[in-house]
Structures are given as C-alpha cells and as structure tokens.
Write a structure and sequence with these properties.
299 residues, mainly alpha, 78% helix, globular
Length: 299
C-alpha cells in the first residue's frame, strides 16, 4: 500500500506525529527516572519493533532489503535509533525535558553547518540568518542564567543531547546521498530491528538485568513511548512525507519542540522561563528560515 493520502488526511496525521513526538520527551524523562537509559531505549525499541511488524505486514510493506540498502539501514539504526535515542535518554536524566527537546531539535542547524563546511550546499543569506538565529538560541539556553554551570550533571546532560542532535545530523547527511532501492517505509522495520538488537546487547553489557519496580503507570509510559511515540510516529511520518510537500513537513516539524515544552509544563510541572522561551523562539525561527532557504532546491 504505497498510495499517497489526501491533503486533509495527511495534515491530520502530521498533527498526530508532532503531538506524539513532542509528548514523548516528557514520557522519556519519566521513564529514565525509573529505568536506566539504555534499558529505556531498548524496551521502547522492542515495543516499536512489534508494532511496526504488525503495521508493515498489514500494509504490504514487509520486504527483505537488498544489499545496496544495507548501508542506509545501518546508518539510521546506529546513528539515529541507537546513538540519538541513548544520548537523549541519558541526557534527560539530568536535564528538564523542555530544555532537552529544544537542544535536541538543533539538528537542522548542524546539517546546514556541515553542508556549508563541506561545500555540498551554498549557505545563502536566508540560511545564514537562520543558522545564526539558531546558534544564538543555543547560546541563550546554555548561558549560566539558564543552566547551572556549577552542576556538572546538568552540563553533561546538555552535552549529551547536543551530541545526539549532531549524530542525527550525520545520519541525515548520509541519507541525502544514499540511492534508495526500497522506500524508507519498507526499510523501517529492519532499522528498528538492528537498533533493538544493539540497544539490548549494550544494556545487558552495561547494566545487566535491571531491577525495575513495575507498575501499571510505568507499563503505560513504555507502551506510549514504544507504540505511539515511536512505531506509530515513524509509520505516520513516512506516509506524511509521501503526501505533503517537503517544505510543509520541514516547517511543520518545528512545532514539535513547542509541543514538547507545553507538555513538559503540563505533565511534569516544568517552568517555562524567559531564557527557555527566547531560546525556543530563536532556534525554531532559525530552523524555519533554513527550511525556507532550501525550498527552491527541494522544488
């Protein structure tokens, strides 16, 4: 089933994706307070794997990838689903979810900087302004008035999430150069499978079998994070990417940090201070400008 959705259905599904991803940061923050980060990522990945197996089998997108697609399977699995997920989960042990999601969504800025440095893309005026705005937002959220520089745990947490964003950026740069045989949707299950195996092995080696105080609430958090925040969101975003213009999805995705900040305030009681609001505005605005600068090439 590879047909595109109608614009109205695609837009509705896109809203679901943005809400699912935004709320998932608060859910992950709650999970890592009860379960070690590697096991949090591994358990979530197992749930996502089962969910995607059901979705892709039902939609006729269950295939065996060709050898030419193996590099992109490994790239997404290791750089995004393993490294990004692990660093975010570890970073959120020390950092509020609201600040974590703002740092995590600096990924497009690192992509633009890397592409400019490698001269694979030209950094025009609009993109330069966007990157400058995003970096200014990064400075705002990292300043001593916003983050306690005397607390090494907080600084380490912020550093981990910035590294996560950079690893995601590296994955995006590779994806852009890959010549796809199968569709991203058809490769999704294999990417999650590789990530699940690697995450589980890392968790066993690092933490052994964890002692978890299971409760219905904790189980529901994992079910949300794995089934909705990961499996459903990945599938839905693949459908949205086929049905809506790239510029629309790029600009629409900038709402995810805003949803994350709002959900952290509502679900976790995290305060929205001036530095957080200003940093979010600068970073989201910078990403939007960069996306607009890319519009002609995408067209």
């Amino acid at each position: 089933m590879n047909e595109s959705l109608s614009p109205a259905k695609a837009a509705a599904l896109f809203i679901v994706v943005v809400l699912a991803w935004g709320i998932n940061w608060s859910v992950t923050k709650s999970l890592v307070e009860a379960v070690p980060p590697l096991w949090t990522a591994a358990i979530r990945s197992w749930i996502a794997l089962i969910g995607l197996l059901v979705i892709l089998r039902a939609s006729g997108n269950l295939i065996v990838p060709e050898v030419a697609d193996v590099p992109v399977v490994l790239s997404v699995a290791l750089l995004h689903m393993t490294l990004f997920s692990t660093l975010v989960a570890a970073g959120l042990r020390y950092l509020p979810a609201s600040k974590g999601i703002v740092l995590g969504y600096t990924t497009p800025l690192w992509v633009a900087l890397a592409a400019g440095a490698a001269r694979t893309e030209r950094l025009g005026t609009l993109k330069l302004v966007g990157v400058a705005s995003g970096l200014a937002g990064l400075c705002v959220i990292l300043n001593p008035a916003s983050l306690d520089w005397g607390n090494w745990h907080i600084l380490i947490g912020a550093g981990m999430i910035i590294l996560a964003a950079i690893s995601w950026a590296a994955n995006i740069i590779y994806i852009r150069s890959h010549r796809w045989i199968a569709t991203p949707l058809q490769l999704l299950l294999w990417q999650v499978l590789v990530a699940t195996v690697v995450l589980t092995a890392m968790a066993l080696i690092t933490d052994g079998i964890p002692e978890v105080n299971w409760s219905p609430h904790l189980a529901l958090l994992f079910l949300y994070s794995g089934a909705i925040g990961t499996a459903l969101a990945y599938w839905a975003m693949s459908m949205v990417n086929k049905s809506l213009p790239a510029l629309t999805t790029s600009l629409g995705t900038t709402a995810t940090p805003l949803v994350g900040i709002a959900s952290a305030a509502l679900l976790l009681g995290e305060p929205v201070d001036l530095s957080l609001a200003l940093a979010a505005a600068l970073i989201v605005g910078g990403i939007a400008l960069s996306s607009l600068a890319d519009a002609p090439s995408r067209a």
